[in-house]
Amino acid sequence: FVNYRVNNAGQYEYDVVFSGVNTEEGTAVEKEPNNSFETANPLSLNILLKGTLSDQDQGDKFVIDVKDQKDLQISVTNEQNLGLNWVLYSESDLNNYVAYATKRDGNKLLGNYNAKPGKYYLSVYKYGGGTGNYTVQVK
């Protein structure tokens, strides 16, 4: 809608409000708290998820529900060149990771894991100072 009025100087002032449809389909944003296995955010396959790490929030966890055996392809893009990395855990052993980033392609940290059906937890963490954004996608 548009709302207008005339100010004291005789000039028109307008308020314009736009509404529409979000065209950025397939994108999600992390929700805090998600710093533990118990509070991990769900992460669907083939969805780009945006997250932020800072000195107060040094790690984020996401849970991936694998229905059928699948080769998970994990990509984390480091938007601000933070010192960050990722590891993947299986619900059967939350003390030892089953996969980690094995390749760097520019600012992307890549890796894969042949997952059996079950829940997996992706942990994105920073090991340096500063604040920055990242994206994660699992296919």
UniProtKB/TrEMBL annotation:
Organism of origin: Bacillus wiedmannii
Enzyme Commission number, as recorded: 3.4.24.3
Top enzyme category: hydrolase
Recorded GO MF terms: calcium ion binding; metalloendopeptidase activity; zinc ion binding
Residue ranges of every copy of the Collagenase ColG-like catalytic helper subdomain domain listed in the record: 1-25
Domain Peptidase C-terminal archaeal/bacterial residues, every copy: 60-126
Presence of keyword 4Fe-4S: no
Protein name, per record: microbial collagenase
Substrates-to-products reaction catalysed: Digestion of native collagen in the triple helical region at Xaa-|-Gly bonds. With synthetic peptides, a preference is shown for Gly at P3 and P1', Pro and Ala at P2 and P2', and hydroxyproline, Ala or Arg at P3'
Domain of life: Bacteria
Pfam families: ColG_sub (PF18496), PPC (PF04151)
Annotated InterPro entries: ColG_subdomain, Peptidase_C_arc/bac
Keywords assigned: Calcium, Hydrolase, Metal-binding, Metalloprotease, Protease, Secreted, Signal, Virulence, Zinc, Zymogen
Protein's cellular compartments: Secreted
Cofactor entry: Ca(2+); Zn(2+)
GO BP, sorted A to Z: proteolysis
Similarity-based family: Belongs to the peptidase M9B family. Collagenase subfamily.
GO cellular component annotations of the record: extracellular region
